[in-house]
Write a structure and sequence with these properties.
With 209 residues, this protein is of the alpha/beta class. It has one domain: Rossmann fold. Helices cover 33% and strands 25% of the residues. It contains seven helices and nine strands. A five-stranded parallel β-sheet has the order 6-7-8-3-9, with helices on both faces. α4 crosses α5. 34% of the residues are buried. The model has no long low-confidence stretch (mean pLDDT 94). The structure holds adenosine-5'-diphosphate and magnesium ion (MG). The site of magnesium ion has 4 residues, from α1.
Amino acid sequence: MQYIIKNLSVGYKKPLIKNLSFEFSNGLTCLTGPNGSGKSTLLKTMAGLLKPLAGSISIFEQDFSTISAKELAKLIAFVPARFPMDVNISVFDFVALGRIPHTNAFGKLEKQDVEITDLAMEQAEITAFAKRRVNNLSDGEKQRVALARALAQDTKILFMDEPTAFLDHNHRIKLFEFLTQRKDKICLISTHELDMAKRFANILSINSD
Ligand code: ADP
Ligand code: MG
């Protein structure tokens, strides 16, 4: 049960990262590297939003390029660095959007979808503001709502781009602890928190030169 990249090159026309090979297994891996080294580009490529310039990706022994967008949404939850959250809907409704890949064409939430949404909100510690509007939340609260939505997607793979950037010290530690405990998921996050990464996770370090 693995996510494997082989000789992967990513970038825009010219490669930013060349020939990267790595096997991600269950647990937390932290992607580190200076600004502009290509962390976000790598994550976007690994989530299927950008095409690799070279190399291959396989997910659970299936070639990435043969997986449809619909199947991919059941396999990978991705929280980009600036998740669009300027929406005037309730936190519950926003988190429940994570269930879309699993619901029918009408997007109707079944009992199980509501339970999974509730659990995701508990895990991200946002149950208390389930009824608030997403666009009225603080940046840190939004970041936890984005995490809850990714958890509601209930995927084996979770990628997050700088998920602790807006969190206070307490919630940062909690997020690392929580992700470390998710032994059922392949988690990859980009971060500048080297101390936390060393304490809690495997590290994949990339450099721009
Ligand atoms: P990091 O996340 O490590 O800070 P990024 O992956 O965001 O780095 O960016 C790496 C480099 O790619 C930067 O020099 C950035 O300007 C460039 N870049 C980012 N997005 C694009 C794009 N859409 N088109 C062309 N260049 C881009
Ligand atoms: Mg980035």
